[in-house]
Design brief:
The termini are far apart. The longest helix has 39 residues. The protein has one domain. The protein contains three helices and no strands. Helix content is 61%, strand content 0%. Helix 1 packs across helix 2 and helix 2 runs antiparallel to helix 3.
């Protein structure tokens, strides 16, 4: 006979965020990412909690910066692919985004 014991976490396992008529901005995604990377208990020593929250803000800004860089790089790749495929007008529209 098997005995199964499930210990469920106190925090939600699933967190849903939505937008309306747009995608997420790099800053919004970076904030969600930083929440997954860095967490600190509300009962932690105030100095440690403040330091962790300040570091989380730094991580958010760093992630958002590199996400914007990745978006620009991907648009360059798409621009070149469209231009090489003989669609210069469409390529130019992508470049202007």
């Amino acid at each position: 006979m098997f005995k199964m014991n499930f210990d469920l976490p106190d925090t939600p396992v699933v967190n849903v965020k939505t937008t309306e008529h747009r995608g997420f901005t790099p800053e919004e995604v970076a904030s969600r990412c930083a929440e997954k990377i860095i967490s600190v208990s509300d009962t932690a020593h105030p100095g440690i909690r403040d330091q962790a929250n300040a570091f989380k803000g730094h991580i958010e800004r760093t992630i958002a910066f590199y996400m914007r860089e990745a978006i620009r790089s991907d648009r360059t790749t798409i621009y070149n692919a469209l231009a090489d495929a003989g669609h210069p007008e469409l390529a130019e529209a992508i470049r202007r985004l």
